[in-house]
Amino acid sequence: MNRGKYGITLDLADEEGMATLRELIRVSDVLVHNFLPRTTRKLGITYPEVSSINPGIIYIHITGFPPGPYHEEPGFDALVQAMGGLMAVTGEGERPAKVGWPSWTCFVLGPPFPGPWRPSFHESGPVGGVWCPFRYVPAPSPP
Known about the structure:
Blueprint: H1 15-27, E1 30-33, H2 37-43, H3 47-53, E2 58-63, H4 77-84, H5 104-109, E3 121-122, E4 125-126, E5 130-135
Parallel strand pairs: 1-2, 2-5
Antiparallel strand pairs: 3-4
């Protein structure tokens, strides 16, 4: 899964870290992040800001919730299972409800994740800027 990838750590509260991030954005084909929407605005890495640095970038922002009352809130697998009703089918009597399957929504939603931006690539690289919001909720129905 991570073959051929490199990792770095950036302190985005530091100007040097932000300068490095802007340079990486300038030379990258794809940016994937899961910052809360308010953090994205605070850091200045919304799609309009990122695409002004690199108009051809494919921008993928993973959030817990679509626009609405919970949009600014963090989302994670157990929460999505609870809100979607999956935990309601676990536990019985004195046994408490629990997470149905470990990272169930990640397994279901994760594999098709690259799909929305794949058409933006062809053999020679990206063909233009694309914004692909990716959200956990509304939660899928249990299998």
